[in-house]
């Protein structure tokens, strides 16, 4: 048990501070609350994070994925290759446009999609690949884009967990046909709820702007069938405040992760691996526990250390995927995915951790010792 004066350390600590509150109130008082000047300003600032790409703000990361697939004309009869070791939203977007998710395995070091598995999964129906920059580690985009170019596939980056991650100096969200970000409260920056699509092509950006707003640029002059996935100006104003702090928060996450990796020495705990050239921004600091994970998590919780499993069930084993795939005779062989789902635990790494918090996390993890 943590001692009486030791508060439990939460796994995540979303910030809604005075600046965020003031920004939200300012917008509410202005009366311009939906897709107005704050949204435009948020999009413009976010472009700095993705080498000046066109940015289109929407109401969630899931909407961002969904609309990007729609804008790329992906639909029934198409296959999209995606790792099963991700949040269900990645595959849900594929199914929401009527396409089939083809699940592939991960690289056991980075937890991101294995490029060789992507290439092996390509069929005549494949139209796109969706790498997920899981936990904030960039996927092997150099290899994935080379494979995609060779086979004329679109690359849709799920960067929902990876704001400001990069590979060899190129930021995520600037590699593929498009990238998507989430601003859910637990993400490295948030807008209460929200999402951003980043694309290189101006025409696709225009289509996305139409799709998020009932197909309209001019009011009541609908050009295509669209949805309502607009971002509010309240969300955008909060997002702008957070975006201005993202750099500092990211540096702090990276420093926190470095401290944990340097000091965690339990022989049955494997600390995160960072691929060469990768800027891992530690949305999650995820270790593998070799042994009884449930027991380890219970001990951490008892010591007041927040912890969580992302994700205990790979997407291909979730009911809405498992049942139709079984019926269709599609069986996925994903040993590294299954192993990761059984071993991973994420520890607190958020920027508000103090040195004392970090020491407590290390002490608790090292106390797990052998023989779990
Ligand atoms: C990998 C991944 N993809 C997509 C999403 C969807 O984002 P949102 O929750 O904003 O819809 C998330 C966020 O939870 C995510 O972690």
Automatic annotation (TrEMBL):
Family of this protein: Belongs to the DegT/DnrJ/EryC1 family. L-glutamine:2-deoxy-scyllo-inosose/scyllo-inosose aminotransferase subfamily.
Cofactor(s) the protein needs: pyridoxal 5'-phosphate
Pfam families: DegT_DnrJ_EryC1 (PF01041)
Top-rank lineage group of the source organism: Bacteria
Name this polypeptide is given: Aminotransferase DegT
GO molecular function: pyridoxal phosphate binding; transaminase activity
Organism: Streptomyces roseolilacinus
Keyword Cell division: no
UniProt keyword annotations, A-Z: Aminotransferase, Pyridoxal phosphate, Transferase
Annotated InterPro entries: DegT/StrS_aminotransferase, PyrdxlP-dep_Trfase, PyrdxlP-dep_Trfase_major, PyrdxlP-dep_Trfase_small
Annotated active site: 187 (proton acceptor)
Modified residues (N6-(pyridoxal phosphate)lysine): 187
Signal peptide (residue range): none
Example GO BP: polysaccharide biosynthetic process
